[in-house]
Write a structure and sequence with these properties.
Radius of gyration: 15 Å
Structural class: alpha/beta
Oligomer: single chain
Strand order of the largest sheet: 5-2-1-6-7-11-10
Shape: globular
Distance between the termini: 26 Å
Number of domains: 1
Number of helices: 6
CATH topology: Rossmann fold
Length: 180
């Protein structure tokens, strides 16, 4: 399984870096990519370098798209390339995982219609799906999470979906995760 995580300036640091760390601890192959070349600066000034330029990526090589939240969603939602990438993953019936403000992009594209989902509560609109007041919601190939506080649970949900319960439990024990 190959995963593609996309960020641009303004990404929510915890949602991107925390999720990335959980996924890599599970030995998942995650490409950390940027909409603006090989760098991105998070919401709180953390600069990340040596990212893959998403414009050079072949989407067919990936099984999942991961969209962290943060103020970056405003830029992403106006970027035709980004939107076409999200639609490509959806149309190819690939996994999509989004946290906090990320699911609102999916909602505006109609991808939450008839789906169970969560997002940053104040950003929930009528997306023609079922909003659940939970940290993480899994609906088939869609994984959504509420906020930065759910970052670990979000990463663990991705591990569960892609690698199963046995690998999930091994990972949880390795990081002393005891939350239910």
């Amino acid at each position: 399984m190959r995963l593609l995580m996309i960020v641009t300036d303004g990404f929510e640091d915890i949602e991107a870096i925390g999720t990335l760390a959980i996924l890599r601890r599970a030995n998942l192959d995650v490409t950390f990519a940027s909409l603006n070349g090989s760098e991105a600066t998070g919401r709180y000034g953390v600069s990340v370098k040596n990212l893959v330029d998403v414009h050079t990526v072949n989407f067919d090589d990936y099984d999942m798209l991961i969209i962290p939240g943060g103020p970056e969603y405003i830029v992403e939602e106006k970027d035709p390339f980004f939107l076409s990438m999200v639609k490509y993953f959806a149309n190819k019936d690939k996994y999509i995982a989004a946290i906090c403000a990320g699911p609102t992009i999916l909602g505006h594209l109609g991808l939450l219609k008839n789906k169970k989902y969560t997002c940053f509560t104040s950003m929930n609109e009528d997306f023609d799906g079922t909003y659940l007041d939970q940290y993480v919601v899994i609906d088939d190939k869609l994984i959504t999470a509420r906020s930065c506080a759910a970052s670990i649970d979000f990463g663990l949900a991705i591990v569960k979906v892609l690698l199963g319960d046995e690998k999930l439990e091994i990972l949880k024990k390795s990081i002393y995760y005891e939350h239910n």
